[in-house]
Design goal:
- By secondary structure, this protein is mainly beta.
- The chain is built from no helices and 10 strands.
- Strands 1, 2, 3, 4, 5, 6, 7, 8, 9 and 10 form a 10-stranded mixed sheet that branches.
- The protein is globular, with a radius of gyration of 15 Å.
Length: about 130
């Protein structure tokens, strides 16, 4: 189920000033086709925007539409805002190590270098937090 973002604010490095709020569900994200080598099923689109939350914080909003794609992850924690997905995490031998189910409210953590497959059942949007380098 796609979210209508017709009247949503534009974004691109959205600032988050102290004492303010950003409606992360209303942000319009620039969605683009994924590289063909990453797509396993469907024609998913994905996009993200960074949120400037001040020094020492790296966070943003990411979205992917229905479909299946593979990725190599960065270190991150995330909270799912909307949608649902099944994420398979593969071991070094290429076999599945674990499977996680995501839905609104899910809090997850991924480590740098994890190889994953994302099966997006309903357009998924998450807020992510990355370590500051």
């Amino acid at each position: 189920m796609a979210h209508d973002e017709t009247d949503a604010p534009e974004t691109g490095d959205a600032p988050l000033a102290a004492g303010s709020v950003i409606d992360t569900l209303a942000l319009r994200l620039p969605l683009e086709a994924l590289p063909a080598a990453e797509v396993r099923a469907g024609a998913p689109l994905a996009g993200a925007t960074d949120i400037d939350a001040g020094p020492g914080l790296s966070l943003g909003v990411w979205e992917m539409t229905a479909g299946t794609a593979v990725d190599v992850e960065a270190d991150e924690c995330f909270v799912v805002l909307r949608g649902s997905a099944t994420v398979t995490i593969f071991g070094d031998d290429g076999d599945p190590d674990s499977v996680i189910e995501l839905r609104p409210g899910s809090l997850g953590r991924l480590a740098a270098g994890m190889r994953t497959e994302w099966v997006i059942h309903e357009d998924l949007r998450k807020v992510y937090i990355l370590p500051v380098e």
